[in-house]
Amino acid sequence: MSRSLAYLLVGAGGAVGGLLRWGATTVVDEAAGAFPWTTFTVNVVGAFALGLLVVGIVGRRQAPPWVRPALGTGLLGGFTTFSAYAHAVDVLATGGEVGTALAYLVSSVLVGVIAAGAGAAVGARLPARRRCVDDSPTAPSGGAR
Fold first, then answer.
1. Gyration radius of the chain's alpha carbons
2. What residues does each domain of the chain span?
3. Tens of pLDDT along the chain (145 residues)?
C-alpha cells in the first residue's frame, strides 16, 4: 500500500470517526459540572474496539493492509479523543468540580485499559483466518473451492 493511500485512508476514517463522536455528543445533553458520560462512553467503546481490531482482526485474521490505517488510526482515532478527555477534565477542575474531574481522569484511564484488554481478549478468541489454496495471491480467479 502506498503512503499516499494510507494518508487518504486515515483521513477518510478520521472524518467518519469524528462525525460519529460529534453525533454522540449532540444526542446527549450533559449538565455543566456533571461527569462527562458521553465522552467517557465513546472513549471506552473505542478502546474496546481498538483492542478487538488490533488483536482479532489485524493480528489473527490476516486483514488487508488498509484495515489498520483506515479503521484503527482513522475511524477509531477520530472517534475517540484525548483532547475531549483533557478538555473535560480542565472544565470540571476549573469549574470547581475537582472531585468529579479526578474521578473522570482516573476512571477513564482505568476503564479504557480494561476495555482495550477485553477487546483484545475477545479478538484472541476469534478463529484465525486460514488461507485456502485458492486464496493465494497467485491463484487464478474463479478457481474451484
1. 19
2. 3-129
3. 899 999 999 999 999 999 999 999 899 888 888 999 999 999 999 999 999 999 998 887 778 999 999 999 999 999 998 888 999 999 999 999 999 999 999 999 999 999 999 999 999 998 887 654 444 454 444 444 3
